[in-house]
Amino acid sequence: MDSYLDLIHRDSLLNSLSLTHLKIFEATARNKSFTRAAAELYTTQPSVSRHVKQLTETIGVPLFEYVDNQIQVTPTGEQLLIIYQEIFESLKKLDTKLFDLKHIEQGQLKISAVNTIRYVIPKFLEVLCQLYPDIKIALDFINHEEILSRIRGNVDDFYILAYPPKKEDIKIKPFMDNSLVVVAPSNHHLVNQPYVSLERLSKEKLIMREQGSENRMAVNTLLAEHGIKSQFQLEVNSNNATKQAVLSGLGLAVLSIHTLNPELEQNQISILNVEGFPILQKWQIIYLKNKWLPPVASTFLNYLQQGTISNSNGNF
Q: How much is the pLDDT for 104?
């Protein structure tokens, strides 16, 4: 009996398959319905059924089966879905590459980054936007756990975070140093203390970022290393909300030094000299090894690493 690989290499199969067949098959498999697939593709249900039947006859193995009156994909169908994804991902890359080779100035760049990056990344995008004013940038600021999910889903061109996942299929490039410090309102009784132990800090009201944030991860790790249980008075999901809570006297907080410029200059917030702080981090740029980067993404990566942006006229 022929293996599946034997089947897909037959000349008759290659000559008979079309992108339309594959697209209709994928829509049917995803919707688990010929009718819903037809509605999605703006065609008729008989047309969908006919294409699926032709594809099944060409493959020579059933692609769908009925289980409890519902359409289910067979193991052969699952393999064909994988091949479909590979084909259309390649076509998508080709389409993007051809477009960007003609119109790099109109390319698209998708980045997701930890929330704290919002305070520094705009200045890195400024030069790129000045050089290519028509590029489109999708920039999402989310927490660490959400970024890991987007890496798994291959959602963006780049991901910026301090603690990259342990995966073999990613590339990691150092981006920027970051320091986490303990802050208090400038009139707090600990501000003038030359040294504050972690044990002493744990007795204060603490404001913490949400679960899944890199800030929270770093603080929890430090406290655990010193045998101190993590306790907090207030949990918030943004750096600005954290600063406002500190300014309102609700407690102490751990924040990135990059978030504090206005408050430090105006003497509204002070940095405490706390045991184990500052926590030194390095933000990393991550992208998938096998992902083709459009020219605008490659240009941006070069700029982040070398401080130069190149076009046909030279470096900027």
A: 60
What residues make up the domain containing 35?
Answer: 4-100
Residue type, 147: I
79/167 same-domain check: no
Q: How many CB atoms lie under 10 A from the CB of residue 48? A: 24
Reported as a single tens digit per residue, the pLDDT across 164-200 is 998 888 999 988 899 999 999 999 999 999 999 999 9
| Domain annotation covers residue 315 | no
In this prediction, residue 299 carries a pLDDT of 82
Cα separation, 170 vs 113, in Å, equals 16
- Residue in 267, 268, 266, 198 with CA at minimum distance from that of residue 231: 198
Looking at residue 127, its amino acid is V
Q: Find the largest Cα–Cα distance for the chain.
A: 82
CATH of the domain at 130: 3.40.190.10
Strands 252-256, 170-185: pairing is: antiparallel
Low-confidence ranges of the chain (pLDDT < 70): 1-16, 99-106, 307-316
Q: pTM (2 decimals)?
A: 0.62
| Cα 20 from Cα 50, distance rounded (Å) | 12
